[in-house]
Write a structure and sequence with these properties.
single chain, alpha+beta, 2 domains, two-stranded antiparallel sheet, two-stranded antiparallel ribbon, 4 helices, 15% strand, rod-shaped
């Protein structure tokens, strides 16, 4: 839209376009064979706005706010055995008997420490 001002001056009112309108304009520019600058002049579109909207819309359409994470699956087998209320951990010839009321945090610390040692 163009509005007339005093003394013969004109000013353009900025038109707010939806994403689909921009996509249509991008396609029209491509089909026209004109450069983006020529097309923008012809359509009375600010060139910087054209490029900015094209970049922003491409980023919106190609990027996701979520990151795909691949999770490693670890197979764990467990069984219970009546051992008089103790937890029996066994690896090869080594055994560790832990009371079932022992802190799981302590058991995890011991297991991590053993895993870091070249005992086996």
């Amino acid at each position: 839209m163009v509005f007339s001002l005093q003394r013969g001056m004109t000013v353009q009112q900025h038109q707010r376009r939806e994403v689909q309108d921009w996509l249509n304009l991008f396609e029209q520019q491509k089909q026209s064979g004109l450069t983006a600058v020529e097309f923008c002049r012809q359509q009375q579109i600010n060139v910087q706005t054209y490029y900015t909207r094209r970049r922003d819309i491409r980023l919106q359409r190609t990027s996701s706010k979520f990151v795909q994470v691949k999770r490693a699956v670890t197979k764990v087998e467990s069984y219970t055995e009546a051992t008089g209320g103790d937890l029996l951990l066994q690896l090869g010839n080594a055994q560790l008997s832990v009371p079932t009321n022992m802190s799981p945090h302590w058991v995890a610390i011991v297991m991590k420490a053993l895993a870091n040692e070249d005992v086996c």
